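Hello Y.,

Per our agreement to keep a running log of every chain we model this quarter, I'm adding this entry. I've kept the format consistent with earlier entries: sequence first, then predicted structure.
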Amino acid sequence: MLKWLLMAALFPAVLLAQPARPGLRPGPALWEGAWWNSPIVQNLDLSETQRKDIRGTVREYRGHLMELREAVQRADSDLETALGENPLDQHKANEAIEHLATARGEMTRTLSQMTLRLRTILTNEQWQELQRRQAQRRAIPFRGRGAGSTPPAARQQR
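Predicted structure for the entry above:
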């Protein structure tokens, strides 16, 4: 569960701020939803204290992460706009690139800090089990709502 929260929050959360691509799971980042009901968390034997501490940590970071995701989305949009201008203003495009890199870096830093905090809540055995489950989940291709389906945005790109 926490591994999912931790790992899913690290890169997929950043990726959710970008246009959907084939094979990515659409939807909100795990830190935005009720992760404790997630199948990846079931049977980890989390104590009530662990659940409380995890909820508190996620609650503490959630608002800032949402702000950072919005900043990444704005920076990505600004870059797309700058690259679409005719004639191209290289200075403006480079500024947009730097802004996007900074926003993504801050998102990654904050997610990594949250992951570190969450890791301290789990036992080593729980952490290892979450890593194993996450690896299994990543190995399964996206199936969406039906076998062989692709995310809506990916269908639009075709």
